Amino acid sequence: MVAGSLSVVRAFAPQIAAGGGGAILNILSGLSWVSFPEAGAYCAAKSAQCVLSVSVVMVASNPLPALAATAISIIWLITYTRRRPDGYVPVTTIRSVRFQTATGLTLALSAGYFTLLFVIPQLLIARAHWTKDAAATGQLVAMVLASLATLGFTSIAARFSRTNVRIVLVAAGTIAVLAAVFASAPLLLLAGIFLALFAATSANATQVIVATAAVPERHKPTAIGLFTLLYLLGGAIGPALASATVL
């Protein structure tokens, strides 16, 4: 997945540069348009991410039609859920407080990470006077280290209470945002992206267990799909927030 993403970036970076600049919102998958039983949740989440990314663009360029379509979709979803309480969006799942808390926390941390993913390089250039290449390299190193930290944390997370795990995640996510808002030193800015990625990926790994444990057994596959959808929703919200704040 990482190798494929890097290949896409390398392929499109020259075109973006030739066009005067730009940003890659998301790197999706062919499974956004096709599906197979063994990866239903993944396919649904990728398809939703594609639609949400397009929606972000539509809201900026055509706000009134986009908001109208959003309102219609929400009303349709509420109506459908009430008519089919055990359908693809089971009422017992979305009304579970534990499910809501786990998914809400993961969504918030995911949105924070995907925002800082685009913001931190710009801050390194503007505040620390780094070159674009130095900023990209520094962020890549910080993200690799954060991935390793996530592996270590999730391997021992079961030893701690659910509350303590969430304290660590919230603290990491909060410090990451504060670093982006106030820090000028490059190490602090890189620490921001480190903590943001650590918080988001650790939440994705640990909170899915909490979310699925809170629903009936027959709804667990659906709960995993909804949880993944909300995590990826952060990938659509983040770039929009970054565009509104820094880019």
Protein architecture, described:
The chain has about 250 residues and is mostly helical. About 80% of the residues lie in helices and about 0% in strands. It contains nine helices and no strands. The longest helix is centred in the middle third of the chain and has 30 residues, at about 95-125. The radius of gyration is 19 Å and the shape is globular.
Mean pLDDT metric: 82
Q: Name the helicity range.
A: over 70%
Shape: globular
Q: Roughly how many Å is the radius of gyration?
A: 19 Å
DSSP strand count: 0
Structural class: mainly alpha
* Number of H/I helices: 9
Proportion of beta-strand residues: under 5%
Main β-sheet description: none
The span between the termini is: 26 Å
Low-pLDDT ranges: none
User: What is the string of helix and strand elements?
Assistant: HHHHHHHHH
How would you concisely characterize the structure shown here?
The protein is mainly alpha-helical. Helices cover 79% and strands 0% of the residues.
